[in-house]
Structure prediction request, 278 residues.
Amino acid sequence: MTKNISVCLSFDFDAMSVWLTTMRSRSLSTLSRGEFGKVGTERLLDVLRDRQVPSSWFIPGHTIETFPDLVQRIADAGHEIGHHGYCHENPASVKPDEERAILERGIACIRRVTGKAPIGYRSPASDLSPASVRLLTEFGFLYDSSMMANDFTPYYCRVGDDPRTDGPYIFGKEVDLVELPMDWSLDDWPYFGLHWPAHHVGLRTPDEVAKIWSADFDFLHQRMGEGVFILTMHPQIIGRGHRILMLERLIDYMKGHAGVTFRSMREVAAAWRAAHPL
Ligand SMILES: [Zn+2]
Prediction:
């Protein structure tokens, strides 16, 4: 069987925004964990350049305005920049008009860097409101990457799902927005992120995580032969030395397989949509 596997490395460059909004912190020490995202990003740009692989970055407007030169470097290196809120707001916890305003503000920030509106979206904290999909189609997005209804196969998002409990779940209508699914098991934060009080003790060893990630890749390569392998990472998490070395080993491992191509998510979404018209 000829293999046709796309690998997408995606990086959510949250910097301080995740601590300010999602974690509601004003502690300078906590915020500095986000600031480390700058160091991590610089290292990741070197890794991606040395291995000549494209990638997709989801960057809140807040990060773009805080680190404009670094974000410009990401874009200038040819990497995709997608939408990730303004200051990491959860779409499911804001009013619909606020959700719209946040989308507009984030788009404006990305336009200033790339000259174009983004076509990819990943929700901060991977939450979506009942209005999100409709808004994303209205703003001309090609794909979302916040849902988990498949693993290695893209699909179309729906509007009008009825999540009732007094009868079966009612599926809404598919719309022209490709879902490139993410999953917490293919995300660096749950494994490595440490939160005080220690209700979430991360700090797992890189080898343990590499085993999980490469086993998922092996399943895709051996059993399915076709699909997209999407890793979600955060510069402030994956950017630590021992994890960078793991990522390099993993990239090299995947590159060593036949029929594997590293692609940006926008490229994968466009190709899948062309091959599977709605
Ligand atoms: Zn994020």
